Amino acid sequence: MSSSSCNNSACLNEARRVAIFGGTHGNEMSGVTLVNLWVKNSAEIQRKGVETKPFITNPKAVEKCTRYVDTDLNRAFTPENLSAPGGDNLPYEVQRAQEINRIFGPKESPDAYDVIFDLHNTTSNMGCTLILESSKDHFNLQMMHYIKKAIAPASCLVLLNEHPLLKYSTSRSVAKHPVGLEVGPQPQGVLRSNIFEAMRVILKHALDFIELFNEGMEFPPCTVEAFRVLERIDYPRDANGNIIAMVHPNLQDCDWEPLNPGDPMFQTFDGKTIRYHGSGTVYPTFINEAAYYEKQQAFVTTRREALVASAIRKI
Amino acid sequence: MMEPVSLPPLSRVAICGGTHGNEMSGVYMVREMQKQKVHRTESVSITTVLSNPRAVDACRRYMETDLNRCFTDALLSAPITDSTPYELRRARELNAQLGPKGSPEAVDLLCDLHNTTANMGVCLIFYSLDWITLHIYNYIQSKMTSAPVRAIQMDLPISEAYSLESVGKHGIGKSIEVGPQPTGVTRADIFNMMKEAVDLTLEWLQKLNSGSTFEGGEVEAYTLVKSVDYPRDPTTNDITAAIHPQLQDNDFKLLKPGDPIFLSFSGETVKHEGEELYPLFVNECAYYEKKIAFHLAKKVTLTFPSISVRKED
């Protein structure tokens, strides 16, 4: 990333090439629908000075309305996968990852796309969530600040996943500035109008921000409240690995609300309560996401953190 | 006032889950009952079955074809060949185990557990207008406070009935449908409602067999009139609108002409035309492929007689 400090602002290159990914998980319908719409008619996503490309990342999964065919595309962009030989013998999503890296990357090179928005839905009650992969990405921080202000009083929270072990190799990580957009709750395979329109509005403001930045607007320093991922909590299981409890009714749908030591966390199938016994208050999210049962995750814990963004302007 | 009815004890019931492999309440309910070795109450023997084990393992609705459409008389008796889909074969096995459909060997009551992504609360679905399912519905509705309890009566003769619950004796059976719950997810509140409905069903059977008389009366139910598909692009057949926010989650709320039903991606509202009807299965995820955005039903009042078990001399 080319940047330099001038007059206390971080000076960054214009964001000329932007992509909007839908269907990274083929059954998360808002992104699939929006991208298909924009592939047919891109008027809504055009901005002066920006080339914005809508793209379906996992077409086979979209066709089958399933999360993935062989392996999760949104975990597939590891250095090993991106350089793996084997062509057609590779799992479908690894082939897709290599193809996407060719078109929109290469990842970590100067030729990579400037910004990629990756559209997702979740069965969790997360509302509109922007996912940040680095607390030092001032461009993204400023964008998220801009979006939050633009949609107020409606809310849009920021989830920071910078955890060395829990961080994963996403489709969007190919770009210089990866932005995850997660909107829920929505069942897999279902299109809810309110969820669809909320995602659409966030993208509108995101593209407006990019246009303003490219035109020369300077964005002063700001603070962005975020939730930093701490740890993944699995379901209680028996000796054979079978789940023996469900997210407790008191915790279900309470994404972003404080979970205190002693609060109910799980309810066993025969009605007993299992409580949270952490050392302090945490803010859980991704509570009861359908796709995470197989990833051994009932929810993740986060802590609140104020992230500071430097002033930015284009070079 | 209808004549009281007396019948032999109902001593065999089947509880089925995982007929659709990604409708999780029933899957976990059956597994828990099997783990607790629930095979009888005092007077009722209980068979618990995971209907579609391969689909449960894969956490999919079905592998090749919808198991819950495989139980018509015609499909159950068609010849099996190498190309017969998995679910048709499985339907035969279930029919042999719990039926045969239409025979005196069939279980007295078959209870099939389902979830829906639609906001339908607890909903019982049955074919026959037999007094047993109406009484169970009435009993559950009078005792459950945690969710609204409603019923859909399917207007099909038993021979044409296509779903698993029609395998019970005289077609006596019901689906218990609880929603809203996403596929692949288990919500504790939804599980608890399902468990309460199953427990009340077994409780009612137990009371009947022990000699209780259940008074007759009246209940309201819904019968399907027609279904409505999503607006589609005439060339590509792609959906061009979503269920309107004012209809979304409003199952069983009377839909009047002029009420919004779809909001197109380009911002136009599509309105309901025709008679006042009740929408159900609004935005059920499995119905996109069946070209159903929602069903429309009318309300009916069903009367039933008092019922008790025939005393053996």
TrEMBL record, chain A:
Pfam family, one: AstE_AspA_cat
Name under which the protein is recorded: Aspartoacylase
CDD domains on file: M14_ASPA
Subcellular localization(s) per the UniProt record: Cytoplasm; Nucleus
Keyword Nucleus: yes
Source lineage: Eukaryota, Metazoa, Chordata, Craniata, Vertebrata
Ranges of residues in domain Succinylglutamate desuccinylase/Aspartoacylase catalytic: 15-210
Domain AstE/AspA barrel-sandwich hybrid: 223-303
PANTHER family: ASPARTOACYLASE
Co-factor binding details: Binds 1 zinc ion per subunit.
Cofactor requirement: Zn(2+)
One CC-aspect GO term: cytosol
Binding site for N-acetyl-L-aspartate: 67, 182, 292
A GO MF label: hydrolase activity, acting on ester bonds
